[in-house]
């Protein structure tokens, strides 16, 4: 387990969305991700002699077309930020055409996209996919671009390590999270239910859910996700809290271990939630369904990276910051760790792109990183939200080191506005992040989703038998095909 409580404790609200980064005051033009880049002045000053090295091309004048990940239509504010970034990028790279891609990363589609050469030049993905994409050859090795990047030492190692595969870099960190539980404090208060302490346990979750649930009115106490791979992802937090692991590497082999006593304990807790009638009657909820139910006041608690439910609850559900509170994942018992899955969002460069396209894509990805103009763009976004009576919800973990000079600049901006959601110091001190499994994580999640659906839909399920069957499936179909060097 990677213990990051002390690291995350210093995050507080230094958080920033993916658009806060870049060079200094020139929109990233001075950053140097490639050793081949040179300024026009440098090129002009090179003596024209046979003994001199040929002048390196000015990358800002290269004519190219790159396709980029573009936020979904529902993310209006993020689209506005991206449009502003494109405009500023083209001011520095006037000959680059930016094509907005509406494709959102899907592990079941990436192979088809790569095979048909339809994947964007720069696409989004998540923390579980680093090793998978690297081994399949679907993510470019950007180690040279990373090593030449003058801000590389300021990137957050908590996130960067997720795409450091065998000492090579395959992804650019954007933002991260430790899974927590977002609680609708107003719903609890309206029913006279005591607000649990942040240092809570599984029993506290169950008792709180029982007290606030009203099945006849369609009100759930908690809405664990029950369909899609997110169901297995939600449950894995409880596996970790119970002291379990997804897999282990032994003798060059990957071995499934989630069918352990800890796994049975975690699955039994899900069974208790079902038997207590505190989950939605229609429990087959994906991420959007569960978070939507939370924003609509149809469940008092939801398990996720905190910024998503907060954003929807505040900006779509009409709640106020004092109505919603972020909790760490509950400890299995008093005194235990509040372990949540450590995940994040990354950008990956298409290995089929030319070297010039890859460099331009890298420069676009980090264009606003550490830049005053990037920070100014975010501040304008905060102001625009305030004018519309909306809230700005930062991610929990950012691409930059939290104790850096840039982190202080971010905090100073956030502190100026009362519509920026503030994570509590106590929460940050309790968070304990554990990285997702290194091998075939999405396949494991899918297998566990089937198990969870059995538990939620039937009575008297043999929990150990279900876990054993899932472990056997994952082992034989996926893990046995892996040879670990």
What labels would you give this structure?
485 residues, alpha+beta, D-Maltodextrin-Binding Protein, domain 2, 2 domains, five-stranded mixed β-sheet, three-stranded antiparallel β-sheet, 16 strands, 15% strand, globular, disordered N terminus, signal, Sugar ABC transporter substrate-binding protein, SBP, Bact_solute-bd_prot1
The helix tally amounts to 19
* Beta fraction: 15-25%
The class by helix and strand makeup works out as alpha+beta
Strand element count: 16
Looking at CATH, the homologous superfamily of the largest domain is Periplasmic binding protein-like II
Average pLDDT? 88
The biggest sheet, with number of strands, parallel, antiparallel or mixed sense and barrel status, is: 5 strands, mixed
Low-confidence stretches: 1-54
Level-2 CATH architecture of the largest domain: 3-Layer(aba) Sandwich
What's the alpha carbon Rg, rounded to whole Å?
23 Å
Please estimate the helix content: 25-40%
CATH topology tier name of the largest domain: D-Maltodextrin-Binding Protein, domain 2
CATH class of the largest domain: Alpha Beta
The geometry reads as globular
Tell me the span between the first and last alpha carbons. Answer: 21 Å
Task: Kindly give the count of domains.
Answer: 2
């Amino acid at each position: 387990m990677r213990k990051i409580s002390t690291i995350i404790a210093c995050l507080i609200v230094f958080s920033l969305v993916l658009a806060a980064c870049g060079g200094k005051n020139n929109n990233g033009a001075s950053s140097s991700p490639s050793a081949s880049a040179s300024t026009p002045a440098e090129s002009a000053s090179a003596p024209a002699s046979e003994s001199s090295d040929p002048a390196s091309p000015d990358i800002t004048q290269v004519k190219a077309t790159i396709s980029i990940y573009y936020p979904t239509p529902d993310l209006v504010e993020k689209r506005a930020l991206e449009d502003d970034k494109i405009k500023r990028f083209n001011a520095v790279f006037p000959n680059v055409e930016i094509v907005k891609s509406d494709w959102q990363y899907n592990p079941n589609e990436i192979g088809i996209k790569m095979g048909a050469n339809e994947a964007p030049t720069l696409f989004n993905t998540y923390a579980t996919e680093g090793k998978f994409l690297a081994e399949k050859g679907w993510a470019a090795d950007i180690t040279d671009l990373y090593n030449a990047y003058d801000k590389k030492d300021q990137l957050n190692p908590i996130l960067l390590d997720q795409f450091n595969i065998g000492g090579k870099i395959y992804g650019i960190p954007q933002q991260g999270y430790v899974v927590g539980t977002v609680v609708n404090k107003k719903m609890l208060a309206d029913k006279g239910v005591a607000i649990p302490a942040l240092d809570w346990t599984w029993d506290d979750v169950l008792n709180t859910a029982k007290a606030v649930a009203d099945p006849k009115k369609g009100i759930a106490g908690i809405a664990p996700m029950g369909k899609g791979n997110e169901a297995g992802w939600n449950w894995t937090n409880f596996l970790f809290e119970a002291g379990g692991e997804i897999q282990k590497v032994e003798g060059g082999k990957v071995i499934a271990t989630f069918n352990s006593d800890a796994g049975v304990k975690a699955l039994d807790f899900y069974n208790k939630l079902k038997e207590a009638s505190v989950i939605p009657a229609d429990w087959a909820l994906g991420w959007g369904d569960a978070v939507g139910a939370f924003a609509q006041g149809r469940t008092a608690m939801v398990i996720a990276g905190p910024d998503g439910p907060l954003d929807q609850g505040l900006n779509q559900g009409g709640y106020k910051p004092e109505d919603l509170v972020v909790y760490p994942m509950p400890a299995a018992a008093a005194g235990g760790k509040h372990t949540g899955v450590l995940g994040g969002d990354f950008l990956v460069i298409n290995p089929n792109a030319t070297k010039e396209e890859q460099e331009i894509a890298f420069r676009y990805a980090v264009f606003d990183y550490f830049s005053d103009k990037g920070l100014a763009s975010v501040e304008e976004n905060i102001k625009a939200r305030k004018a519309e009576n909306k809230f700005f919800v930062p991610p929990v973990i950012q691409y930059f080191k939290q104790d850096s000079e840039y982190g202080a600049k971010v905090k100073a901006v956030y502190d100026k506005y009362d519509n920026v959601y503030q994570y509590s110091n106590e929460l940050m001190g309790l968070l304990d992040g554990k990285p997702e499994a290194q091998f075939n994580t999405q396949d494991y999640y899918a297998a566990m989703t089937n198990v969870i659906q059995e538990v939620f839909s039937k009575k008297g399920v043999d929990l150990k038998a279900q876990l054993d069957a899932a472990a056997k499936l994952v082992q034989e179909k996926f893990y046995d095909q892996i040879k670990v060097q």
